[in-house]
C-alpha cells in the first residue's frame, strides 16, 4: 500500500527534521536532487555577487574591508543571522527558514546596489530573480517535507538603509555585498552538510 509507505516516510522525515538524526533523509532521492540543484543555484548567486563586488572595487575603488571598518560603524547595515545553519546547532527546519528570511532581506537591500551601479541593473535584477527562485525552491521543499514554513509578504516591508552621504552609500553597498557573500557561503555549507549526511 503506497499510502502506508508515504505515512512511514513522512514520520521518518518528521523525526529526522525534529531532532532525530538526519540519516533517514540521506536516501531520499528527491531531497538529494533538491540539494544538488540548489547548491548549483547558490554557487551561481555567489558568482553574481562576486561580479558585483568586482564592479564596486573597479568603479568605486572600494576593495578592502579592513580599510572600511571605521566607516561601517556609522552605517546601519543589516546582517541576516544564520546561526541555525552552523553544524553545532544545525536544524534543517530553522536553517531553511533563516535562509529564506535572509534572502528576503538581501533581496530588498540590493536596491541600494542598483542605485549605486545604474549601469549594472541587469546583473542586479538577475541576482534578485535567482534569489526569489532559490527562496521558493526552499519553501517548496519544506512544504514537500511537511515542515512549517513562514510566509513572508511579497511586498517590500524592510525600509532601505539611508545614507548621510554618497561615500556612505558606496561603503554601505560594499558591506551589503560582503555580508551577502558571507551569508551565501554559510547557506552553501549548510546545504552541502545535508548532502553528506
UniProtKB/TrEMBL annotation:
Principal location: secreted
Record's keyword annotation contains rRNA-binding: no
GO biological-process terms attached to the record: immune response; positive regulation of myeloid cell differentiation
Matching InterPro entries: 4_helix_cytokine-like_core (IPR009079), GCSF/MGF (IPR040117), IL-6/GCSF/MGF (IPR030474), IL6/GCSF/MGF_CS (IPR030473)
Annotated Gene Ontology cellular component terms: extracellular region
Signal peptide: 1-19
Keywords from the named record: Disulfide bond, Glycoprotein, Growth factor, Secreted, Signal
GO molecular function term, any single one: granulocyte colony-stimulating factor receptor binding
Domain of life: Eukaryota
Subcellular location: Secreted
Family designation: Belongs to the IL-6 superfamily.
Protein name: MGF factor
Lineage summary: Eukaryota, Metazoa, Chordata, Craniata, Vertebrata
Amino acid at each position: 500500500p503506497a499510502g502506508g509507505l508515504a505515512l512511514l516516510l513522512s514520520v521518518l522525515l518528521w523525526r529526522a527534521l525534529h531532532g532525530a538524526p538526519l540519516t533517514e533523509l540521506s536516501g531520499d532521492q528527491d531531497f538529494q536532487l533538491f540539494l544538488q540543484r540548489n547548491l548549483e543555484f547558490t554557487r551561481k548567486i555567489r558568482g553574481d555577487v562576486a561580479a558585483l563586488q568586482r564592479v564596486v572595487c573597479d568603479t568605486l575603488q572600494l576593495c578592502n574591508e579592513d580599510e572600511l571598518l571605521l566607516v561601517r560603524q556609522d552605517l546601519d547595515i543589516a546582517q541576516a543571522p544564520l546561526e541555525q545553519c552552523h553544524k553545532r546547532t544545525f536544524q534543517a527546519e530553522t536553517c531553511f527558514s533563516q535562509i529564506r528570511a535572509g534572502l528576503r532581506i538581501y533581496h530588498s537591500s540590493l536596491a541600494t546596489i542598483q542605485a549605486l551601479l545604474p549601469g549594472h541593473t541587469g546583473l542586479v535584477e538577475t541576482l534578485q530573480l535567482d534569489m526569489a527562485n532559490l527562496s521558493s525552491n526552499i519553501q517548496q521543499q519544506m512544504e514537500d517535507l511537511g515542515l512549517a514554513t513562514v510566509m513572508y509578504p511579497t511586498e517590500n516591508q524592510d525600509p532601505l538603509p539611508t545614507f548621510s552621504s554618497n561615500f556612505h552609500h558606496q561603503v554601505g553597498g560594499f558591506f551589503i555585498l560582503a555580508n551577502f557573500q558571507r551569508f551565501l557561503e554559510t547557506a552553501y555549507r549548510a546545504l552541502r552538510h545535508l548532502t553528506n549526511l
